[in-house]
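Protein modeling request. Please complete all fields; requests missing the sequence field cannot be processed.
Requester role: graduate student
Desired output: 3D structure, token encoding
Chains: 1
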Amino acid sequence: MQNLNSYFIKNNQLKSKMSLVLTLMKSGCTFDQIKIISGCKQDSIQEMISQSFGKSVNMYENMRKYLSDEQCLRMWLMINKLNDELSFKLIKQLLYPSFICIFTYVSMLFFKLTLLQRIQSMFEIADSNLILIGFNTTLVLLTMIYMTIFITLIFLKISLNNPNSRNFFYKSLHLRFKDNILTVYTTGLFSRMLNECIKSGISTQKSLEMLGRNVDFPFVAFLASNCSNKLNEGNSFNDSISSIETDSSFKIYMQLGFYEINVISQLSNYCEFNTEYLSFKLKRLIDCFTVFVYFQFSISVILLYQVIQIPMTALGSMI
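Delivered output (319 residues):
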């Protein structure tokens, strides 16, 4: 928990510092003035911004080919804000059900490894007892579920390093589960980055080209590359962006933008909608997990109570 708090504190400090730098850049301050006011120790504005990108420094180098340093910094702050808000909501909503889930499973496992064998030997309870079978079966099923989830996450982590596997995973998930949370998040990030690029004065084609080279956000690059390819085939921007693997609400917003001939306005409107839609999708996902957690908790309490009742009943019959 301390490491988590430390991460958020440091990240917020960095965001505040770079927001100050961005404000000073907009005000026309020189680098020396920015350095004195912000307390930065870097030798150039490029080095300062590059370090703020951290592991995403390749993203900054790619963006610099199309955007000014001020625009790159504004883009980074926008992405950082979105990801931080989503991470905070996810951790906040997952904390309590995750604790209940882990506590319940560990309690059952501890009871199985320490007390259950003693109770069985002391009161001569056979393994064929239906309550014990139910308890052991539930524990095995929970272990299998958690192991399957763990192995799946490792497999995804390894396989998603390959661009072809990553794109196949995204397309399959998008086709099988329309408007899933990954599609909604990716579409929101794509629309925000595209909006920033267009507002910065870059052409749509150049914006998509830049986003298509973004290795730090591969799903965004996948959408941008697909849209760019369709434009190169001679399709209109509206047809191109409406046929890529985005969530359905984005396509509706972009069609409205086409009729109003105001793409930037519709992108901005969609970004606001996406924030609420993403929160809604996240809540639904957490609610599903919470239902599973409380179901696990209820079953575990009932089984533990039934197992404890066996020796209590035996003691009662002896009196």
